[in-house]
Amino acid sequence: TQLLEQSPQFLSIQEGENLTVYCNSSSVFSSLQWYRQEPGEGPVLLVTVVTGGEVKKLKRLTFQFGDARKDSSLHITAAQPGDTGLYLCAGNDYKLSFGAGTTVTVRA
Amino acid sequence: SAVISQKPSRDICQRGTSLTIQCQVDSQVTMMFWYRQQPGQSLTLIATANQGSEATYESGFVIDKFPISRPNLTFSTLTVSNMSPEDSSIYLCSGGGQSEQYFGPGTRLTVT
Description:
The complex is a heterodimer of chains A (108) and B (112). Chain A contains no helices and 11 strands. Chain A has strands spanning 4-7, 10-14, 19-25, 31-37, 44-49, 55-58, 61-65, 71-76, 85-93, 95-98, 102-107.
């Protein structure tokens, strides 16, 4: 049983458009993390959210954590081809439980 | 941060054989883990590699099939034993502390 549900599974957009990826958990973890993975590489940590209602920004990326600490979203503004990759959310309770992932393709 | 390297980066193996994957961290880390990933899909945790003691396996993974060693705080190995085509996958290790994990580039295994 997947503890974390991600949507959508696939997302293809034109350069300059915005996108949002969602992550919903059936459990509350100590923290929730977002990773980005490119082909042939391991996942790279983008952000860790801990507190309910938290909002974090990383350049054009905005991460929100729901008040109940079960849902999160990743919003990318003015997407660029370099944003292409597999985006994964993960619940962290000393070990990571990953969502199914969202494959994002940004077309030039 | 920590830099994780894995060897080999890829291999093609015959069914029934075994392959040992090495994971090296450039600094001492508290925790190391092994994952399996199908291309384009998510990561599934195989086990926690415990330094100086037996690994802790997740449901569906057993020590006889995936023996793991962790002799110190910077190194671990995963062996995929008696391989079958169903074991074809990408195997990744990670290392870090409780709040942050760093991942190796993965080992792409193909079993024929």
